[in-house]
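so my prof wants the structure for this chain in the tokens format not the other one, which i didnt know existed until like an hour ago. anyway here's the sequence
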Amino acid sequence: MNRIQHFVEEELSTSLLSLATEAELPLEPAGDAESSHCIFTPLHYERNYAYPLIVWLHGPNDDEQQVTQVMPLVSLRNYVGVGPRGTLAATGSADGYSWSQNERHIMLAEQRVMSAIAAARRWLNIAPSRVYLAGYGCGGTMAFRIALNQPLAFAGVLSLGGALPTTLRPLCQLHAARRLKILLISGRDSQQYPEARVCDNLRLLHSAGMSVSLRQYPCGDDLTMQMFSDMDRWIMEELTASQVFQPDPAEHRSGGKS
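here's what i got, hopefully its the right format
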């Protein structure tokens, strides 16, 4: 059982998950194995409102369905979400997929991300300037990679426990990448992404002139509810600061979102 699944079962079995089940949130699996993805539609979707999009890159030994577990933890109403499938199938007794940092897999990952974004835009009303790329573990590292390679395609990038990639010149588009907003989330006692490496990544990004926010939590490699709440808060603050955020009609009717 992966950490996301464990977290959901332990923390949310009586709250957000039950609400998501009652809402019967629609999923949109793609049929083609080379572009498999899953779409999360927000609760009380308003077709005339252009939603921010979160592209979620799942963690190791998981798949595109992880986006349906993550998005209710971030917000049931604020975003459309889409999750592409990892490019590297697990071997041995492990299930699911992962993301590999070699040239062929990076190219394939970019294709899958762009295909997933295009699919979300075909089905739902997405604001083109409000696309955020996020991921967990190796998915966070790939989110960094793709956002830095194609910085004009994204408003920001969020990594939960995924280090900055170091091979194949990740900062080759540095001038354009300086416009990206970055949120780095880590556990203080993480073994997969230790504090020393977090500090190294921060120094590199700051020296490159990039805008980085760090959120560190008193935990190891586990995920916490606060991480997802802070993820939602950070994106909303960025949208407001950039003056591209439009009020959601549902918010005015209901008095707020969750």
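also thought this was worth mentioning. The beta strands are 37-40, 51-57, 80-84, 88-89, 97-98, 126-136, 156-160, 181-187, 211-217.
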